[in-house]
Amino acid sequence: MRTDADPLLPALQAASEELARHGVRFEVFARLGEHTHLVLDQDGALERRESHELGVACRVSKGGHAGFAAAAGGSAKAGRQAALGALENMLPSRDPLPPRELLGTSGSALPHPPAEPAEQEAFAHALARAFDEVGSGITLVQVRLLGGTSSAALATGEGFLARAAAGGAVAELLVAPPAGPWRHLHFAAPALADFDPEAVARRAVEAALLATRGDAPDRQLTDVLLAPAVAAPLVVALAQRLAHQAPDDGEFARARVSRAWNLVDERPGPAGLLPLPWDGEGFPARRIAVVAGGRLRERFATWERAQHTGEKPGGAVRPSYRHPPVPGPANLVVLAETALRQPELLALLENGFYLALPAGAVRVDHASGRFALRAAAVAVRQGKPEAAHPLVDLRGSFRRLLAALAATGGDAESFSLASAVTTPSLLFRRLEIA
Amino acid sequence: MRRDEGSGLSELATAVAHARVAELEDVFLERRAEVCWHLAEGRVTARETLLREGAAVRRDGTLVSGDGLDRPILARLLGIASRALPPFSAPAFPDPPQLEEALPRLPAQWASVRWSWRWAAILADRRAVALRRPDLAEVTLEDGHRALTVWPPGTDREDSDLAPATRVNARVGAARVLLAPAAAAVLLHELIGHPLEGDLLLRGASPWSGRQGERLVRLSLSVSDDPSRTDLPGAFSTDDEGEPAQPRELLAEGILVGALADRESAAALGVPTGNARRANVHARPRPRISNLVAHASDPLPHPPRHEAAIEVETLTSGTMEPASGAILLHVRTAFALRRGERHRPLAPFTLVGSLAAVRSGLLAAAEPTLPVAEPGWCAKDGEIVPTGAIAPWLLLSGLEVR
Fold first, then answer.
1. Number of Cβ pairs closer than 8 Å across A and B?
2. Minimal Cβ distance to B144: which of A141, A366, A390
3. Which of A10, A121, A185, B42 is an S-S bond match for A173, by CB 3.0 to 4.6 Å?
4. What is the pTM of this model?
5. CATH topology for A9-209?
6. Mean of the pLDDT values across residues A348-374?
């Protein structure tokens, strides 16, 4: 391996050599993330960050023992530290490492080159100008832009070596409407150039003005239409919950599943925000159908889980180089079976609530399998807006969420959350609003 | 691995000054070590180690950071040649503790235990200042709830039965609640701590902007931020801009008297600096809470259970929305009270109220005032730092169960 030009290779090579000397089965994973962050404050102040996050992780296995360790940096020293740490951490365990013959790569498109700092700055100012031009009375408190690329490499002691690259851009706006809570808006795309500043500003203003004044509604079971920004964190939370629950016992045993659900993890792309050529363990990326046809389909599985349960591996993710691979979603897409337009969805909603914008993260009670999410909402009566509610709590169980999906919109948007997720508006029957 | 001190840092600070990097503010060096033991039924099933090191440079309004800690990396961040910097070394990563020595008996409901160590140094004005903090212990329970203390973690923490079958729904509507110290600490963290962070005060994102000297609560409650309390997890010897740790009085007998500031916000607000914290080497220093220490001058001797309908033991989180003044407390464990006794455990619920309601509804504080493992990790714009708290019991009206 040539190590002079590639920042990942010195650590990868040193770790591999160290582990090979110890005669263990091993896997070495290295990742470099290069990101630029820009914050533009309402007073015009600019704050910039440029980060190079680089590290290496090792998993080892021998004689019924396994271990994991990670170290920051891309040097040979970092590679040796991770290797020795993994050896030191070996405890009795099944062999978590997949066999070489199952590993591979599906190939994926190269990421867009990241925006230059000057481009980011120009975009932030263009967005602020566009916001002013909309003239809504809303104050743009902050624009936050994040862009960058990551490259990863995975090598095993049995001679597998694979590379991957990804990139993306996120624009976040913190806005203060003339009344009511400040709002936080999130937009994600493969590249900064995919954003139109005027369109982003217009959509942000529309969403932020939707529910500025009003009381909390009474607690009730009712139908809810979730805009993509509200649906997205719930879809990720559902997929994560499904990843950690056995399909045939526990909370999802004999769960009723709406036929409107068609939730897939489009790991190889091209759909979705973040395709990658292999999963967190080196299995070729493949499409994983999670919920479809009125039932739960495939659960995310690492090789270790697959050995234990008979499920199909290839569902591993690595949140960063610091974490061992875990089962979970990577590039979720909710496919719209019906792709209704918003007036059609509102007509189907008839009486209930339209939730336009999330106001915080999804809260999950792990003991009961219930979730809660705050959002800005509008009460709808006979398909028409009736009253605004700046903050409502949407609650329910994930089991109920599976059963309650009634229709999907044709307005899919992508978001970069705990995993990438692309979803249209979702209409659910009888969830709790408070 | 062994504990030692970094060397060559003073020479490095001098060399950095000689390099005359344009608009250089400071250089930050950091090492962290973590070990996580995964547990099942009181036994260790896996052990993971993470060693992190990196450097960050603030220059010309930009923070540039990179993982790894050596001369080439630092030179790249500074934009100078490697040979302009002398050799230097950070303290070696220490040996992690032996779990079985620290905790001979592991409670069955613990899902994991994490030990963490951190060393950092700030180079500025030809000086190198080392930063120390206590080793930390994070215990994750089966339901994902995390408790943060200094190392080693205590095993005497009692946790209520979380089985859904044993818990009933709280009655919706207005309720007088008694907050145990762990829950009171989260409320005070959101009500007093966060909103007095200098950047939020300057951004207009705090209801306490321009309110110094005003009475915030009727109760004779005093609250300070104290990073010098090394028995609490938010402790540090100097802040992340190199300023010595100092206790900072925020609320004196119910009156607003202070703020938390980094250098930038201290200059704008006219208050002392010393509260800058970085979530990691890639994050900017920002004004943040460390250890929130609250006490009442006239506390009741015992928690007044007979005056409340609900006793809240722990929260999963709390938030205060600055513009609307809405306060939400997400309750994890609580009990319905009857005749001053715990009657039934309650299912998770949310307490909602306005800032005005909480200010006027704080009725009493009661002993014992205790150090607690909450709020623990504190997030602000996605940046997470460890915090600690000492709080009394609080009797509170004006909130609604939702």
1. 138
2. A366
3. A185
4. 0.93
5. PmbA/TldD fold (3.30.2290)
6. 92
